[in-house]
Amino acid sequence: MPIDWFPLWLSLRVATISTVLALVIGLALAWLLANREFRGKEILDAAVTLPLVLPPTVLGYYLLVVLGRNSPVGKIYEWLFGEPLVFSWQAAVVAALFHSTPLLVKSARAAFESVDRSYERAARTLGASELRLFWRVTLPLARRSILAAAALAFARSLGDFGVTLMIAGNIPGRTQTVALAIFDAVEGGNGKAARVLVLIISGVALAVLSVANRLTSSPYGPRQTAL
Amino acid sequence: MIEARIRKQFPPGQESAAFSLDVDFKAEAGITVLFGPSGAGKTLTLDSIAGFVRPDEGRILLDDEILFDGASGVHLAPRVRRCGYVFQNYALFPHMTLRENLEFAVERVPRLERHRKVAEMLEKFHLAEVSGRRPYELSGGQKQRCSIARALIGSARLLLLDEPTRGLDAPLRAELYAVLRQVRQEFEIPTLLVTHDFEECLELADEMLVVRDGRLVQSGTPRKVFEHPANVDVARLLGVYNLLPIEILGLDPGRNVSRLRYQSFELAGPYFPGRLIGDRVWLCIRPDALRVMPKNGRPGTNQMPATLVRAVEKLERVRLEFAGDIAVEMPRPEFGKYQSVKDWVIEFPSSGLRIL
User: What is the pTM of this model?
Assistant: First the structure.
């Protein structure tokens, strides 16, 4: 039986898009949690973490309810793009997003908080606006940790199974990602396809991890401290 | 000129007692040192002026601009205050070169002007040759100069330094003092420097403000503070005086004498106006104002027998520490003869004794 490469490309595409989106959403949330005091901060923090601990089916169920064709969000999406969100490859992006964003928020928040406060204070006394402070000081100093977190988020996006199955389905050639394809291959007795895909995904994950590890080692001289 | 009246309360926390800051001072161009023990509120004062901390009440004026006013609710953001702040760790941005660190502070200035300013500062602070290096490639002195140059480049109206010499070795300290003197000369702005080192006040301060427990307890030139500490706490902070608890036994204004008791020992002093017999006060005397000699027969007037606890060698003098927390300094050669002597007498001068 020939190997169908579509799931691999789909997974890479889904993981790439979801990582980019997760970076945007994750950085904004992380910055908010690290720098601002507001009512409901604890609740937001908990809500962001929730997808990490919820069973994928539960999360998938919620997403189905919120994004389904009869929900307001689903209707708006359908009106905008002319087709339903659920059971499309875009839904797989959403699934991957919910899988990876919590991880990114956690790491990015820790990275922002680990930037020595005196750098930020210094930037402020030197006339920097909060936006410039973020782009020129906080983000560059936290850059490596954040890139490492993004790499992990990418690897995690590649591997989502449950949530994708719930909201994107398992439609070969349309929404079947690698994780689902491997499951189908094993079920259908296509051992060779399963083995090849498993090896490729393992290789990609390993490569991404080693990049992440290299990124988290110290960038500025022997020690990254202000002294 | 900076004028500040700052009040801030901190309720007691789980691991900290309640604290309140209440200071009121003015500082002209030149170096004003905030001197006091750690936890006195010195850094909090700087942070209030820089705008990191919002006081509860008060008013901070810098060159007639209101930075903070409790009554009308004005509280300018740090970035519009134009207060240069030199942090204890310098806080140079590690991902930027020295030049980029300076440019960051003048990014809104037009390009040509910016170039000129950066070049001028690099020149002034002897940094031109290393301007392309990152902070971790710089020596301590270069980092120091760079952080001061960066704080000043955006036409700062005030320079704030938070314990700039903490953890520095002697040559680096001396280098910083030289730079600060240069700043005093070339930039006519007030400089506020926090320290708990009295030597540093003597070295730098045009004016010193002694802060303790959130209050300003004395101000004046270091010399004046040194010669006339306002109270026993200030004298103790200076770290140079012998402070002995004494009781006044007799006062005779006619003959300008007094009788004082320290522990079981009686000594004669000058008349102290405004004091009463029975007052318990502190005798404040410098270690080099006392004379000591090995005990030999009966002690004479104002000579108190004392046991030597240890002798600390200094550069030119020896500091003899006696039981009862009295220290006396004497020239080294003189002490050499009496190395092994344990029992001494301390002679108090009868004039020039000061009580607090």
Answer: 0.83
